Amino acid sequence: MASGEPSExxxxxxAETVAVPDLLPVLALKETVVFPYIIVPLSVAxxxxxxxxxxxxxxDRMVLLVAQRGSQDEPxxxxxxGTGTAGIIMRMLKLPDGRLRILVQxxxxxxxxxxxxxxGLLQAKVARLEEPPSPRPTLESEALVRxxxxxxxxxxxxxxxxxxxxxxxxxxxxxxxxxADLVASNLALRADDAxxxxxxxxxxxxxxxxxxxxAREIQVLTVQEEISSQARGExxxxxxxYYLRQQLKAIQDELGEGEELAAEIAALRxxxxxxxxxxxxxxxxERQIRRLERSHxxxxxxxxxxxxxxxxVSLPWRRFSDDDLSLAHARQVLDEDHxxxxxxxxxxxxxxAVRRLNPDVKGPILCFVGPPGVGKxxxxxxxxxxxxxxxxxxxxxxxxxEAEIRGHRRTYxxxxxxxxxxxxxxxxxxxxxxxxxxxxxxxxxxRGDPSAALLEALDPEQNTSFVDHYLGVSYDLSRVxxxxxANLLDPIQPAFLDRMEVIRLTGYTxxxxxxxxxxxxxxxxxxxxxxxxxxxxxxxxxxxxxxGDYTREAGLRNLEREIAAICRxxxxxxxxxxxxxxxxxxxxxxxEKAAGADGPVPEGSAPTPPAxxxxxxxxxxxxxxxxxxPLEPTVVTAEMVERVLGARRHYSEELLDRDRVGVATxxxxxxxxxxxxxxxxxxxxxxGKLLLTGQLGEVMRESAQAALSYARSHAARHGVPxxxxxxEHDIHVHVPAGSIPKDGPxxxxxxxxxxxxxxxxxxxxxxxxxxxxxxxRGDVMPIGGLREKVMAAKIAGVxxxxxxxxxxxxxxxxxxKLRDGIEFHLVDHMDRVLEIALRPAAAxxxxxxxxxxxxxxxxxxxxxxxxxSR
Length: 870
Known about the structure:
This protein starts with 11 loop residues before the first helix and ends in an 18-residue tail after the last helix. The radius of gyration is 49 Å and the shape is elongated. By secondary structure, the chain is α/β, with parallel strands linked by helices. Helix content is about 45%, strand content about 15%. The longest helix has about 55 residues, at about 205-255. It is built from 29 helices and 24 strands. Strands 18-19-17-16-20-23-24 form a seven-stranded mixed β-sheet. The protein has a five-stranded mixed β-barrel with strand order 1-3-4-5-6. A five-stranded parallel β-sheet has the order 8-9-12-7-13, sandwiched between helices.
């Protein structure tokens, strides 16, 4: 309760005559400014404020009401404003929690000259600020006063919380200063604005400030009223829609359709909330739901809407799997699943490291290019396993319709989303490893170009808003790790290829295949053929025989098939041995039973009935598994391989048996790896024509023509009268294995060497293999497929290899185990090629023998894979 009798509010004249002491206890206020003549309720809880109230009540009830800067619980003297209000405590009420509720009235403005802390409270030395007398009324001052009074009434009409007493008091006030204080104290002003009004002593200036603040408050109230009106309008419309929906629901209930549709819609909304559907998709879903509610349940449109809504809510909008960013784990998984392929593994580890440092990094678009069977697709599965992500594979071979990628528009019957979003739904997460297989086999026709439609999905700058024609809303694909595969880069559009990071997977060497067979292929086939009890063992010689004589490919598919064939043969032997053992055991048991433990049956006695036996299983019942008793393992040797798989299918290329005139050894690239390519040239009686045989492509024909032109132009330098020679001879260029098409831009120096060998009658060194294109000036141009060609030279036992000097940078990427034992010569002109490749004239065979026996090379016939001298 209040201490003493409640005081009455001071009148204006009384407030002006109240003496303000020089020293007052300080009551610091947060976000509050008290004006003279204004009565304000305050809540006091801080210790210093409670002490100030006690000190004031013990004396003349006067305190200094001053606003503080900031919101400190215990302000320092420097935190107080320089101008405050001297006020009188009119009433005081103690609350149970120790706080005080006081009612204070402002008396006069005071200037705070000094503040000091003592005895747990703040005391201030103050000086009263006398307001200047109000000027004589003028038209301007009267207009300002009248404008403020009208604005107060207007604000009250807009909803400003003013009591009727305040409105009456404002209407009767003509003094500008008092009116300004009344207006400022009844507006929801910021503490800084209210403090400025308090510090302004001139009445008209203070009223002008209050008028501006009142005008701003009116603007806020006006906007608030407009918002409220709109809200009321929306509420009225919502109430109307609710009423109509209730009527529709009653009608559907009468027809027996309401509960089912309501449950379906509720399930759709719940699924949308669970999958975190973005706002755009949510708006589209609600729009389709409203159409569904208005549609007839048996109409075709209803079925289309249901399918569309099901696709919308089933996509993983914001559901992501957690990445396993451990580099050690990723390296372990990749090494377990794949041998070698170090470049690809390093690229995946780089992505994981960057992902660890920057979780928002966009996924790369990798393109694995290589021949069939080298592990492109299985490598994608390993990457997904290493990252802990889902794996989705999309085969694009033969796809010709753009709608397969972007989806069909919903106006078509049977429309569905494209295969990109179908894969995302299958994955169930928004960040799978998505493999686009065989992108080089995408077609194009009148229905569009699918590769152009894939540009948006694979472009990191666009795939954040991939739009499927069926859904009609954008879908974020930026978190997806796209991996594409191709056998060749040439069929891929340049714009499409530009979006991808190409990683080449070349063929495996025989050493690599031997190691892969040991680690992966043999354990897999032994397990699949039921030989996991040690019934079979492969020797290194046996595996090498399968690799060298029965498979000829860059990949591993045929090697796995041949290993599986051997395992099946061994499985038959194991099954036959098990059957024989079971039959022998059965015969022994029968003999023992026939002998009998009781001896022969006496004459005249009844025979003992046979013991009951188990009924025989029906003929359709599956045979029980064979008992796998410990048997001697079958050792797969080289001789057994030939016995099981039959005659060898492939013969490794061998070098010529001796140096020959007009026969040069080249190197070719094929999809199955590298190969030796023998070029034979003979001079025939004729008139300088060039004859080409061996199914040469257009590029190789042009290379042969360029080689012949170079030989004719430089023959005189070597002592051969070209005009006379070509006037009497035709040049026949032949590449053996004529049933196999051959093409590529790297046989130029090989053909030129063979032609000049004939012209100069000098044999070509059979231990030298060469590759490179030639210009008419004799310059040697760079080639591709170097790793495969070095591999072919290694297998054939080539001692020296001629390469274009510009391919020196590529030689460093060839593994050391392939380069070991081969002497590489980097050449840039045909003069250097001839210097290394041609034997001295005395060492060569005569021209007649070369013409009679131009071959000497044993060439194998490839069942598949056309060699290319690229």
